[in-house]
Structures are given as C-alpha cells and as structure tokens.
Write a structure and sequence with these properties.
This protein is of the alpha/beta class and about 375 residues long. The protein contains 14 helices and eleven strands. It has a six-stranded mixed sheet, with helices on both faces.
C-alpha cells in the first residue's frame, strides 16, 4: 500500500528521534575521549592539585616533630618560622607540635625526658643539660640569634656603671645565660657576689622576665640584665640602657639562642632534623631580607602566645638589637662556659662533642652559603 504524506512524516520523525538518542548516548564517550587527550575544561579534573603534587614526594621518617621555644624576640627564628609556615613547608607532611617554655631548665628537662625533640634555647642551659647528662642527651645543631641583652636601670638611682654597686639588679634565673654574664661582669669590676644566694656587693635578684617590669615599676629592683623584649619594656617604664652586652664582646657577636636536638631523635630521624634546618635557614634568610615584615610576623606570633602584641615603643627598639644568624658562634659558648666556671656556678665542663653541625653545613652548602665552625667542640 503506497505511503501517504502523513505516514512519511511519521517515519522521518521516528528516524530523527532514534539518531538523537544515539548521539546523546555517545556524547559522554566523546567528552571522555577529549578529556583524556587534555582538551576542554573537563581535563582539569585529572590535573593534580598543588597539595597532591607535594604529597608525591618522599615522606620523612617521623609523623611528628616536637619543637620547643620561648616567647622571646631572641627566639625570632622559631616565632617567624612557625608563624609563616617556613619550617613546616620543608617537612613534607610531618606535623610540627610546637611547645612554648619560659625557662631553659624546663625545656632541657622536656628534651631529656623524651617529650621534646628539638628546641631553641640559650647557651647556658645547653651547657648545663649537656654536662649533667655526661654528653649523652643533646647536641647543638645550629645557631639562631646573637645579641639582644641589655642592662637597664632606674636613671634616678644609677647614673654610671660604678653606681650599680650596692643596688638590686634582676636576672631571669640563677645560672641562666644573662645571670652568668652579669656575674662575670660584676667580677670584672672587682666586686663579690655569692652565686647561690645572689648576695654581696650587688644584690642579684633572680626574677622571671614576666614579673621583672612590674618589679621595676614598683621599685623593688633598681635595674635588670635581661634579654629582649624585657629590656625595652623596662625602658618604656622609664628605665635607661646603661650597657648593651654586645659592646663587651670583641666582634660584637655572642650566641644568645641555639638550636638543640635530642641525640636519640637525631640518630633515628636525621632526615627530619635536616628538613627542620632547611626551614630555619630559609626563615633566617627571610627575616634578614624582610626585617619589617619579620618583626610584624614575630609580634603576631607573640600575640597568639600571650593574647596581645608588643607595643611599638617596645618592639621597635628591641628588634634591631638582635642579629639573626645560622652560625652558632661556638667560640662564644666556650667563653660563656668559662664565665660560669669562674662564677662557681659549674665545675669545669667537658664540652667536646656538644656540637654536631654536619646537617647544618650540608644545608648551608646546598644553599650556596658558607659553612660554620664548631670551634673544635664537634662530635667525633
């Protein structure tokens, strides 16, 4: 029977529908094929994200590293390195567990007790911790800072260095780095002070840095030999800088902050220690290249630690008095140990092996920077 016009139109419509269904079914396959060749917006779904790229690197041997530091400007490497993520960036997924301390002995105790792996700390606690463990528990693996220590006094009571005799001067803690330096300076003046009690021609009052500004304001002390930012806090309360410790050193350099590590952690996880040192070296480079940004970053970290930032009248004069360095200035640590012996705070220490700068010098060499010395006190 011949097809009518209506029948022909119906057949055409059915054919068109069938072709459309086939085309629609084929479309995802076509897009997939194009995407696999890198064409079109769908190709981006298969491109690795930045985080995925980082994760393809070799994981380090520890899932976590516990790092200790003080909320002091003399620990700027730690403050800025943590605040800006410059240390974490080198760890390829190993997590940092930061721990804040207020005194060297408690940090040494944490390191020796196994609850801390790496720490930023002063030379005197480093020496004490090394000697007490008979050289078995820690190594100094890098420097961090030099300077930043001042003798600040009440200008109404003390006008010259000789006026310090008979006055009450605070230091942070018996046997700490500033305490040792002050006792040594007192000895150079020919004055006598009992190192245990702090009594003598000068009254050495061991006072926590948090308390020192209030004690100064209330008149219970006449001055203090302290690190930054405590020194500048005293100046903001009417104090006057009578002496900058930097001026007592031949090259105007002396170690105020080291980086130390548990020997156990160093032996078991040298890759993690090396990665942390890569981060500290890059942090120090960034600090020295961007002093104003670094100052703001350190202050932001202090705010996070203590609830409020340092006032500009405190941080602005404090910041430039601290030199940030990878060099541990090992010869100055040796001198400071001799001061502690002379002050009768410790017996003659055996410091051979206190330094292991192998990984630091490896990192420095790779970065095109000069290697640093252990002054003959390196691990054999």
């Amino acid at each position: 029977m011949p097809a009518t016009a209506t029948t022909r139109r119906t057949r055409t419509t059915r054919t068109t529908l069938r072709r459309s269904v086939v085309a629609a079914a084929a479309l995802p396959l076509l897009i997939g094929a194009l995407a696999s060749c890198g064409y079109g917006s769908e190709a981006k779904k298969d491109e690795p994200k930045a985080a995925d790229v980082a994760d393809t690197g070799k994981k380090l041997s520890a899932a976590e590293v516990r790092i200790g530091y003080f909320p002091n400007l003399t620990h700027a490497t730690a403050l800025v390195g943590l605040q800006e993520g410059l240390i974490e960036k080198e760890l390829n997924g190993t997590k940092i567990k930061p721990q804040s301390f207020n005194a060297g002995p408690s940090e040494i105790e944490a390191l020796n007790g196994g609850s801390l792996d790496i720490g930023f700390i002063g030379p005197s606690p480093s020496i004490n911790g090394y000697v007490k463990s008979k050289g078995s528990n820690l190594r100094i693996i890098s420097g961090s800072a030099s300077g930043g220590v001042k003798l600040v006094v009440n200008p109404d009571k003390i006008k010259t260095l000789d006026d310090v005799k008979g006055k009450k001067i605070a230091t942070p803690q018996k046997g700490n780095t500033q305490d040792v330096a002050f006792l040594n300076w007192i000895g150079t003046k020919g004055w006598n002070v009992d190192p245990e009690s702090g009594k003598g021609d000068v009254s050495v009052v061991r006072t926590d840095n948090k308390v020192t500004p209030d004690a100064f304001k209330q008149g219970s002390i006449d001055g203090a030999w302290v690190p930054e930012p405590t020194a500048s806090k005293l100046v903001s309360e009417g104090g006057s800088v009578l002496l900058d410790e930097t001026d007592l050193w031949p090259d105007k350099k002396f170690v105020i902050t080291n980086i130390i590590v548990s020997q156990k952690f160093l032996k078991e996880h040298p890759d993690v220690v090396e990665a942390v040192l890569k981060g500290t070296v890059k942090t120090n480079e960034w600090i020295n290249a961007n002093p104003d940004k670094a100052k703001a970053s350190a202050n932001a970290k202090l705010e996070a630690e203590g609830g409020k930032p340092l006032d500009a009248k405190v941080i602005d004069p404090a910041w430039p008095s601290i030199a940030i360095t990878d060099d541990p200035l090992a010869s100055t640590l040796k001198t400071q140990s001799e001061w502690a012996v002379k002050a009768k705070l410790i017996e003659q220490p055996e410091l051979s092996g206190i330094y292991d700068l192998t990984l630091l010098n490896k990192v420095l060499k790779a970065a095109g920077k000069p290697e640093v010395s252990d002054a003959g006190l390196g691990a054999k």
